[in-house]
Amino acid sequence: MSQLRDLVAAELRQPVDPKVRALAEAIAARHGDSSRAVLFYGSCLREHRFDGLMLDFYLIVSDYRAAYGRGWLAAANRLFPPNVFPFEHDGLTAKYAVLSEADFHRLNGPETRNVSVWARFAQPSRLVWAADAAAEGRAIAAIARAAPTLLSAALAVLPNDQPPLDLWRAAFALTYSAELRAEKQSRSGSVVDADPERYHRFTAPALAAARAEGRRCQASWRRRRIEGKALSVIRLAKASATFAGGVDYIAWKINRHAGTAIRIKPWQRRWPLLAAVMLVPRLLRSRAIR
What we know:
Elements: H1 2-12, H2 18-30, E1 35-41, E2 54-61, H3 64-68, H4 72-79, E3 83-89, E4 92-100, H5 101-107, H6 116-121, E5 125-130, H7 133-143, H8 146-155, H9 164-177, H10 187-193, H11 196-212, H12 221-242, H13 246-258, H14 266-270, H15 272-286
Parallel strand pairs: 2-4
Antiparallel strand pairs: 1-2, 1-5, 3-4
Helix pairs in contact: 5-7, 8-9, 8-11, 9-10, 12-15
């Protein structure tokens, strides 16, 4: 596990654009002393220009009550994590998801059937801001759980003798099938193809860590798909409430990834929660999301 942790720590500490760092610091400041770490992830990691893009972050907090005070946001984040919010700073546009340190650790491990967090953090990310050394250490430890969880879950249903890159591609394809996704089916493979050497480096340590901890990810992928897509609908509806202009963002993201031309009507902006839920059957029928 120490070899994998070292790989994760080195990757997380790689430098980012100063504007990205400033944006992460502003996100952390928004939630005050509850903020513990800010992680930058997603396709924008590979970009050098951010014009017209929405950057993706995770904000890790000490706990939800400290992050929000009293009110429904803390309860919503605890019951159906994460909450997602839009953010703008110094000309950059972003969205950030909020998880507590405890939930971030749990959702990167095999004790959760939902793929959302461990599938994302089995991919590259950057620790852009941390409150202190303890917060940095907890983030590294949580993320070091993600790749072993992914591979262990995938190998429960995939051939165990695949070449490393084929294994990663097939593993990510499984996770994409367990969420509502606007991306094309080839996207899961392009994640690996963007940095094949990285996945070669991670394969042996991730498999060794899975074996060392005796990980068992035996939940059926059929169950993961049913639960994951249901949770995706709930999160979509929740995002329409936590996001100013959330239903417009949902349409923008689907249009960008799926090549559709969804137009949001005025009544849908007035009733974003209803609009988000009503969009789902239409999008499934048209295969704009899967």
